[in-house]
Amino acid sequence: MSLANSVVVLDFETTGLSPNMGDRAIEIGAVKLVNGEVVDTFQQLMNPGFRVSSFIEGYTGITNVMLRDAPSCDEVMAQFAQFIAGENLVAHNASFDKRFLDDELERVNAAYSGEFACSLLVSRRLNQDAPSHKLGDLVRFKQIDNDGVFHRALADAEMTAKLWMLMVNDLQSRGISAPSFALMQKIGKTSKSAIDKLLSSQGA
């Protein structure tokens, strides 16, 4: 059984919203958790092969000057495929990051064997009193230590990892001693009205 506290938490910064529209990754950040502890990190800018818009420069703080000498997406993603080999993956709004991960890895004929869980969906079920489930809002709501940097990949991955472990620990406090990764996935797909029943069935 894969435990929820041993995962890779990742975040992409990109040139836009969809690889289907020609958008590419410009930064990847990731945190590797083993038994809830950070054992490794990965962070790299990558040159998408074209200039990014002024909006994206402003939104991420990643400028065309910074990207000019960065390695190519293909080079970085080949390295990242090794970093995530055999690991389950977590991202905040995972469908977005999964689209880019799948697209970028396909370009370098690489793949991954783990599954994805979405910390945003899990948070909607476990933090139902939060005013919003945007990462920055949850960091403030949960009073998670942060350096005030958002929309940079490693900083966001680190914040997501802290949020993820808060939710894992929340389940442990409810009597689920070793939450599995599969349980976290199931929580994200369960309706709000059915969540208490699901957790009580797990020994909570």
**N-C termini distance:** 19 Å
Strand content: 15-25%
- Adjacency order of strands in the biggest sheet: 3-2-1-4-5
Radius of gyration: 17 Å
Number of helices: 9
Helix-strand topology string: EEEHHHEHEHHHHH
How many β-strands, per DSSP? Answer: 5
Name the shape in a single word: globular
* Largest sheet geometry: 5 strands, mixed
Mean pLDDT: 96
Broad structural category: alpha/beta
**Unreliable parts:** none
| DSSP helix fraction | 40-55%
Overview of this protein structure:
By secondary structure, the chain is an alpha/beta fold. Helix content is 44%, strand content 16%. The protein is built from nine helices and five strands. A five-stranded mixed sheet has the order 3-2-1-4-5, sandwiched between helices. Strand 4, helix 4 (94-107) and strand 5 (116-118) form a beta-alpha-beta unit. Helix 5 crosses helix 8 (181-189). The longest helix has 21 residues, at 153-173. The protein is globular and about 50 Å long. The relative contact order is 0.18. Residues 6-173 form the Exonuclease domain. Pfam families: RNase_T. This is DNA-directed DNA polymerase. Its EC number is 2.7.7.7. InterPro entries: DnaQ, Ribonucl_H, RNaseH-like_sf, RNaseH_sf.
